[in-house]
Every structure is written in structure tokens, then in C-alpha cells.
Design brief:
195 residues; alpha/beta; Rossmann fold; five-stranded parallel β-sheet; five-stranded antiparallel β-sheet; 10 strands; globular
Length: 195
Amino acid sequence: MAKRVYFAFHYEDVELFRANVVRNHWVTKEDREDAGFFDASLWESTKKRGEDAVKSLINNGLDKTSATVILIGSETYSRRWVRYEIIKSIQRGNGIFGIHINSIKDKFGYTKNTGSNPFEYLGIQYNSDGTSLQFYEWINGKWQLFSDLTGYTLKNQRPPEDRGNFYRLSRWHKTYDWVSDNGYNLFSNWVDACC
């Protein structure tokens, strides 16, 4: 059965068509079941309505999804709302992975160097008894508390070796390259593996 997937991306990558190559690759498949997802993403143009409206739209867009896919271009790692989408996806329990898209030719036929991994710029720290966590983001050369969402209480206490420790999200969340890792044929496998 196909999973509902939420795509997070920098709007520039839509304008250059890279994000759409991944988001719309199912149209050449026999059906959406074969592609492995239903697209439930949002457009960044909602920013004009204010922060609360953007958060609400993202939260509603994530509703009934089981996977969040970060489409990684050159500036994705630094985008505020992509970071929010990642952290909110963790809070709600979605499986998460990233796909590097700079190897896809843009509308002018050009590719770019691989963009920075956004999971390297976000982290969590467990409290001293392993019952809750806080989110952090790398800003201006240092780790700061994530300001758009607070941490939360965990359902299960973390083992002693994790208590009080800080980890980058890259510890748990994989990334693939759409071209070199054959995303067209393997996307549904990646979704199944993350959830």
C-alpha cells in the first residue's frame, strides 16, 4: 500500500524544476501505488500570510502522512520552514529521509554540486533522566535552541548512555542522491525503509 509523503523543499528548487522531478516522478508510473506515495506537500507562497498561517498549513499538510522527504538543494539546509517541517515531522513520528537533487538537470540543463545535508544542522539533546528532549539548530557558528517548536516528553525513557547527550539528526536520518542512487526506481523502497 502506498504511503502518504510530505515533501519539504526550498522554493527555488521548484522554480528550477529539480524538486518537481522527484515530486512528480509518479506520473510516468502505471499508478501511484507503483510510485510508492501520494504527494501532500505545500507551496512556500503561504509565507505572505504570516508565521502562524505557515505553521498551520505545514501542520495540516503533515496530517495523515507517514513519511517526510527533504529535497536537498543548495540552500535547503538553511531554510527556516524546511527546518520547521523536519522538527514537526519528528514530533509527529513521521519517518524522514533526504534526497539530494542538485544532480538533476534544471530547466536550463545544468546541475550543481551537492547541497549541505540539513540533518547536520539540526540536533536534539536528551535531558539528564532520558524522559524528554530539546531541539537545536546551528546558527551563526553555534548551536541554539530551536525557536519555532519546543521539545517534548518521550513515550519511552532513553537508555542511560543517551541521557544528557546531544546528537545531530544525521545520526538517524539517511540521505540519497536522486541520480546516482537511482531514485526513479528506488524511491518507494526508500519510503518503505524509513517508515
